[in-house]
Write a structure and sequence with these properties.
Blueprint lengths: L3 E7 L3 H12 L8 E7 L6 H6 L7 E5 L5 H11 L4 E5 L3 E3 L3 H11 L4 E8 L5 H11 L19 E5 H6 L12 H11 L5 E10 L5 H21 L2 H25 L5 H25 L13
Parallel strand pairs: 1-2, 1-4, 2-3, 6-8
Antiparallel strand pairs: 4-7, 5-8, 6-7
Length: about 300
């Protein structure tokens, strides 16, 4: 039985998936101790076709489901997993050679229940990727110096104990497009389990975003934020809202720290635009939340 199950949701990104799987072949970890579960989320180009063209030395399982979102795909993979630990990885992430060994070392030697590695921007020349990366991972900058401050870990590079993942209820079924990681981390900590950060477990996130895909992403984040706030208590919602000014200031400071020269202005502009788009998606979802399941409503096109 493998001790680790690596779960990868995918949707219409055969090229990125191929890079991800090729990188998993090269990780410095015994092949017999981990399995890879790819969940094709109803894409027009089936993941099994892409994988069939590759010669992979991996213990590989391919699942296919009707399009329901990455959160639902991760949940489906977790149900099929056989490993003691679940590791969630995105199809556009390329792990470094020591990634899996670093995560396993933290989980097994330190007795931690959940640990996330470091995600670096794989397309530093793309301004949309830079802005998206700042929005998603600016919190990670302080984790190395203050491990007790870890409150959120993203699901594109996250390892958890499988028994505890199922015991706390896994990912929330209403958050199938985004924010399932934030709600899960809140619930995980509520049950008294720990979150930790392993900066030596590195993956490169290679999104190659366009203006349209960046706007679509922020729109989706806004929509899912509406449901996330609807799930937390009024007290927790007020606390989260109270942290927003500090959050925005932190993102802006990180942008100024990470970027120099002419890049600063467009990245700051993209950060501002992203919040306007997210706020619009949030407002729309608040108006139409009673119209049926989230995954059945059309996304921004």
């Amino acid at each position: 039985m493998p001790s680790i199950s690596v779960i990868i949701p995918t949707y219409n990104r055969p090229g990125a998936l191929a890079w991800c799987l090729r990188a998993l072949e090269e990780v410095d970890f015994p092949r017999e101790r981990f399995e890879v579960i790819v969940v094709d989320d109803g894409g027009s180009m089936a993941a099994v076709s892409t994988i069939g063209e590759l010669t992979l030395a991996l213990d590989l399982i391919v699942l296919r489901q009707n399009n329901a979102g990455p959160g639902a795909a991760r949940a489906a993979g977790a149900q099929r997993a056989r490993g003691r630990y679940l590791i969630f990885l995105d199809d556009d992430c390329v792990p470094e050679r020591g990634w899996l060994r670093a995560l396993a070392a933290h989980l097994e030697s330190s007795g931690l229940e959940a640990v996330a590695g470091k995600t670096v921007n794989g397309c530093p020349g793309n301004l949309y990727d830079c802005a998206s990366h700042l929005l998603s991972y600016h919190q990670y900058a302080g984790y190395s110096n203050n491990p007790a401050s870890v409150e959120f870990l993203a699901t594109n590079n996250l390892a958890v104990r499988a028994d505890l993942f199922h015991a706390v209820g896994g990912f929330h079924p209403d958050l199938v497009l985004a924010y399932e990681d934030r709600e899960f981390c809140d619930r995980w900590r509520h049950f008294g389990h720990r979150l930790a950060y392993a900066p030596e477990a590195v993956v490169r996130h290679c999104r190659s975003m366009t203006m349209l895909s960046f706007c679509r992403q922020q729109w989706t984040y806004g929509r899912m934020a509406s449901h996330y706030y609807g799930l937390v208590s009024n007290c927790a919602a007020r606390r989260i809202c109270g942290h927003l000014p500090r959050l925005y200031l932190g993102v802006a400071r990180q942008a100024l720290c990470d970027h120099r020269g002419w890049r600063r202005a467009p990245i700051l502009a993209l950060l501002a635009v992203s919040q306007l788009i997210a706020a619009t998606g949030f407002a729309q979802e608040c108006l139409f939340r009673s119209r049926g399941p989230i995954a059945k409503r059309p996304a921004l096109t």
